[in-house]
Structures are given as C-alpha cells and as structure tokens.
From TrEMBL:
Any one of the GO BP annotations: glucan catabolic process
Main location: secreted
Protein name: beta-glucosidase
Keyword Lipid metabolism among record annotations: no
Cellular component terms (Gene Ontology): extracellular region
Family under the similarity heading: Belongs to the glycosyl hydrolase 3 family.
PANTHER family in the cross-refs: BETA-GLUCOSIDASE (PTHR42715), BETA-GLUCOSIDASE G-RELATED (PTHR42715:SF12)
Subcellular location: Secreted
Length: 217
C-alpha cells in the first residue's frame, strides 16, 4: 500500500518543465548524479502531462507495480541518502528496465535546502500564527516554484510535528502550531500550494520528533 500510494502521487502529478516567468525562457535544472536520468527532462521527452485524474493515476500505478521485482520494490520505498550531493538530499534511484527515471528529494520546511539563489521563507510556526489559510497556501505555492527549477521532484518540507509542547524542542519552528487542528489546516493548504507546481509535497515528522537528546538515533 505504501508503494501504491507513492506511485499514485508520481503518476498523478508529474513534474512539469520549469519556465522563467519573467523572461519566458526554459530553466535548465541542476543535474542529478551522472548515472541518473533527470526526471524533468524525462517527463518532457515522453510528453507526460503535468496533471492527471485520480482514476488514470491509480491505473498507471498498479500497472507499474506489477512490472517490478521484489528488489526493485524495496528500492522504491527505501531510497538512497545523498547529503550534500548536487541538489538532492536523497533519491529514489532510477529503474531503467521499466523506464522509471528516478526522483530527487530535498528538504526543507521553509524553502529549498543546500541551494543558492533561493528564498528563506517564514517558518511554519510563523505561518501558523497568522491563522491565514490564503497566505499559508501562497507560501507553499511560491516554495514549490523554487523547488521545481532545481530539479527537485519531492519537497521534504511541511512538518506536522513537533507540536511545540516541549519548549526546548529544537525543531519547534518547523511545525505550524501546538494545536493539531490548526496544524492540519496549514498542512493541507501548504500541500496544495506546493503541488500546484507539479512538485510532490511530503509531510514529515508525524510523531516522535520532540526529543533533542540522541535526535538522530
């Protein structure tokens, strides 16, 4: 089910080719690893539309899963960590046998991490304090516009937790609010904003992100 859900997002929202909205010229994405296919280029070459209806996406995802062997399925849901390599902090590696181009993933909760010529947006905590759904959506929309030309297919951004109930939590700023309902509303608006650009939004830190001692354990 995890793999199916992931592929539904992939099939339903392919990454569109980025365009400079001022000059109207096409933007060349930052390249991935030398051995990887850039999904932005791949989608363009195969005339993949930026958006599809859910039923079509589900059918495509199911058909794709049936082509994979067990090792390939494992690769799809585990990925590869690549800190400080190119524009990706992690990758879903390509499966050339079935024409899957791979995906580049990058943090973060207030904009593109480990990159130049990008913005540092207000933190989730500040956005949540506004109680303004329209503004929170616009924040996500503009964030997505900066992820896309970097060649990033999945934004590891919006954070559901920590809720901020522990005052010493070093990641409190990533979450939207101590109130779970407000956090849910803000997350939904942010997802819609980011994904309006054809970039997948990945909500993270659902639970257990409050501890600072041995945080990476």
């Amino acid at each position: 089910m995890l793999l199916l859900g992931y592929l539904l997002l992939l099939a339903g929202r392919a990454v569109a080719r980025p365009v400079n909205e001022v000059s109207g010229t096409l933007i060349t994405p930052v390249p991935f690893y030398d051995h990887m296919i850039n999904p932005l280029t791949w989608f363009l070459a195969h005339n993949v539309p930026a958006f599809r209806d859910w039923k079509t996406a589900e059918s495509m995802a199911n058909n794709f899963i049936w082509q994979l062997n067990l090792t390939e399925k494992g690769s799809m849901v585990t990925g590869k960590l690549a800190i400080s390599v190119g524009s990706c902090i992690g990758n879903i590696l390509p499966i050339e046998r079935v024409g899957f181009p791979g995906l580049c993933m990058q943090d973060g909760p207030n904009g593109v991490n480990l990159a130049d010529l990008v913005s540092a947006f207000p933190s989730g905590l500040n956005a949540g304090a506004s109680w303004n759904k329209k503004m929170i959506y616009q924040r996500g929309l503009v964030m997505g516009k900066e992820f896309r030309p970097k060649g990033i297919a999945v934004a590891l951004g919006l954070s559901a937790g920590p809720l901020g109930r522990h005052a010493l939590g070093g990641c409190n700023w990533e979450g939207f609010s101590v109130d779970p309902y407000l956090s849910g509303v803000a997350i939904e608006a942010t997802i819609r904003g980011i994904q309006a650009n054809g970039v997948q939004a990945c909500a993270k830190h659902i639970v257990a992100n409050k501890q600072e001692t041995q945080n990476a354990a």
